[in-house]
Amino acid sequence: MVTTSRRRTLRLAKHWPFTSVITATLAQLEARTPISPDNLTTHQSSPTTHCVCVLTFREEMIDARGPQKAREMIARRDVLVVGAVGGAALVLPGPNGAVALPNGTVVAPSARSVGTFPVPTLDPTTIPKYVTDLVIPPVMPMARHSKRHDIDTYVIGVRQFSQQVLPPTLPSTTVWGYGSLGDSNTFNYPSFTIEARVDRPVRVTWVNDLVDDQGRFLPHLLTVDPTLHWANPPGGNVGRDSRPTFSNTPPPYDGPVPIVTHLHGGHSAEESDGYAEAWYLPRANNIPPGFATVGSFYNEFREKFADEHGLKWKPGTATFQYANRQRAATIWFHDHTLGMTRLNVYAGPAGFYLLRGGECDLPKGVLPGPAPAFGDPPGTRYHEIPLAIQDRSFNSDGSLFYPTSREFFDGFPGPYIPTTDVSPYWNPEFFANTMVVNGRTWPKLEVEPRRYRLRFLNGCNARFLILKIADNPTARPAQSAVPFWQIGNEGGFLPAPVQLEQLLLANAERADVIVDFTGIPEGTELYLINEGPDSPFGGRGVPFDAADPDTTGQVMKFVVGPLVSKDKSVPPDKLKLPKIRPLGSPSVTRRLSLNEVTSTNVPPVPPDTPVETLLGTVDSAGNPVLLGWADPVTENPRVNATETWELYNFTADAHPIHIHEVAFEVVNRQPFNGPPIPPESWERGFKDTVIAYPGEITRVKATFDRPGRFVWHCHIVEHEDNEMMRPYQIGGRHKKDH
Question: Which pTM value belongs to this model?
């Protein structure tokens, strides 16, 4: 074995009959030694059913920055885990079985009736592809008498249930999902769609219903790391929303699960934005004594909502109102709990919120349709379809796999906190090995030879997507068989349609596109494929291996059927999209930084081991000033001020940066030592999430017109959950010091 302190531990991403741990030294990189089996050391361990992943070293960083700078910046490990380690321990129901919910679904019992035993992971190459039909999410039903006050009203809960995510020949999967409390049949992963109209308010009472039929709380499906800066209900009102300290490495948290829902892309008031410290536990009958049942901001926002709308939130709920005074757009909603977003969203709670109408929409019939509507009869054909693309891994019993130890990520077995500064369960990124679209693995969709409007969402935890439509699912590089006509992004329509051979989508980005199947012969099979990497995305000019063409490189299949209905929509090259009013000149420019922190405990921790990701500011000399979630607010725009935010990326990876409450313009990007680069054609108009490339300054401009406390963060949710999120305040200091 190579014993140098600068060795790198790599895990192999194929399903080999043994686990290989490969080590290489930074010295090899500095010498530009080719990496091959001849200069790597391999150790074989006992047989397993599944093993993990391969990444490439960032040799280009050495060429660009020199060995010393590369040593500082290659903190991304050069290799990550795509799949699941065979034999990983998982908590499963004990002999007393599961608990039936009122809707007839089956949920896991409480923590007191579980047993722990090893469950082998499911090899994704054994999962049949394209045998199940795509699920097109129906429309979420409103509450009774919802239109009484000219407000569309919903009561939507999060529950645990069983769903057939894998093909029917394989076991079902226990997931979480949103649904209407008035109709238990609406609970689904992903959620049914909320249809909204511009200038017509929507009011949603979000209910934390993660309880069994006896009213006892349900523990998390996944491993919760209590050593992060997180909601921390066991800390009580004094210790909630903090990073607790421990005298010994703690076990995973197995208590009641906090949630709070964020409308991503919504132009919301602070009390309705889903602030990360406004979470709440379910109204369970067995909450342990001393637990905080709500987050630090919950009571303040409850009082503010009551003052403004005359309604006070009940325990286990929060009611949010969305004015919908913004451009028609593809919006979505998901959990946003402090330090737990990666786990809560991976378990399932997410859904589309489609805002229509107003002067920034197009008349009915111009674009392909119809979209799903409430009350549609069975068999209705849709030509506008939302597509939520996610990566997931599974165990052989159908349950979701997510890492149960930090060792899964980089092979470091500990010691962890408090002996070192390495958290025991948090993984800096996670790349699963199976692609899921609208809650099903590798589905198929029969399409007519006509135009379709597809609303894409990258709902992955860490994976960037590069999507193409190809006639061969495994040939790489893939040739585009049918182009995309992108007509919109997160902030609504673009200035004009853009023809693209591929779509680059970072986490949480959306693309509103038209795909024209006109003239394609009946029986033709086409494939939506992904050429993004099974690893962090490095950005411009950084080479990478495309996703495994046998697994994560495939997404779904289109099968061209007969033409059933006449297509009256306007061809995309003839479309005239609504005009866009650009923002005015900025009054303030802020310099902000994206950073990564590596361990200071060397040894026993290997060099360059990442322990957290941080945002911050940039000082007058151009150096990053690192700030955590709990540090004082540094971004405090005046109400109605227009500002430019410059995002300096000091890390080795691209980060999708999301700013709550606003829709911004992408101004340009500029390498640290180069000229500005204009935004991409598909980034014109308005956005709410932008890719900040490594070694570059990404400039965005926004008008901050709603006073209140909001956040900005990286939407690689593993980063967001470990300090890569900061509060910001519009309109001066917050009235309370939290």
Answer: 0.86
